[in-house]
Amino acid sequence: MPFINETVKTYDNAGKISLFWLGTKPTLIVVDPEMMKEVLSYKLGHIEKSPRNPQAKVLTMGLSTMEGEKWVKQRKVVSTPFHQEKLKRMAPAFLASCIELIERWKKSVSPKGSCELDVWPDIQNFTADVISRTAFGSKFDEGKRIFELQREQIILFVEAGQSVYLPGFRFLPTKKNKRRIYLDKEIKENLNDLIQRKLSAMRTGEWGADDLLGMLLQYCNQSPFQDDVSNLKNKRMTIDEVIEECKLFYLAGQETSSTLLTWSMILLAMHPSWQEKAREEVLLICGRRMPSSEDLTHFKIVSI
């Protein structure tokens, strides 16, 4: 972005901070890594988020939109499933999705021993499957409808973001506005159905609280495990809040992870020597067996 690039070069403060006005809003550009780290890891809720296009409200009203004390409280609840020990329990789900993908690719190989395929759609489906298994205890087929609706929702949001927003425009009954409302309603209904089935299964003991949704529902005002959660009064969530957080995990987790994996594969293909080093490290630590969560801590080159 030439304007921002020129602003940084002209008005920076020792190469760290520069400021420009976006209409009536002052905007800080931070290019110092340590200061970026401080801003992004700040956990007290004092740093405000940048203003959002009101059309974004249909995407999610979860943690990503909150500020201040409410953000601090919600963050403590939502970050609970991401403690290292709880993530380790999800390793079998990661492996199951990964094995299915590899087996599907093996079947694509011709008798000559090679084939060409576009990995991007497969990686997208793979990350969607992983999120569905680890977050909601279901396979991709069950979450597929939600992913499809959210993809269309993102396209409509990007279109809106590329034009000047007029106050109140989102309330006009235009074709695209009505479509946005319909998509939001469908996504919420699908997630609510999944949540109600999960709550019912948790009450009967058929389903534990070992996935993301189960952990969130422990803090829900309809949870069958309310007595097991300490200080619940300060952490209680409504079903609507759980739905918004589910929307956020679907939205933020799938596209970012699939982009990262695809780009990693491209870089490994561009640098075969590192590809070989990574492969040798995996074979050295795991042999021919599938890696476990404990193995992950020993990987050095793969971690890089």
Gyration radius, rounded: 22 Å
The CATH level-2 architecture of the largest domain is identified as Orthogonal Bundle
- Order of strands, main sheet, comes to 1-2
- CATH class of the largest domain reads Mainly Alpha
Low-confidence stretches: 227-232
CATH superfamily label of the largest domain: Cytochrome P450
Task: Tell me which oligomeric state these chains represent.
Answer: single chain
Termini distance?
Answer: 29 Å
Strand content: under 5%
Query: What is the fold-level CATH name, i.e. the topology of the largest domain?
Result: Cytochrome p450
Mean pLDDT: 82
Number of strands: 2
In percent, how helical is the residue content?
55-70%
Specify the structural class: mainly alpha
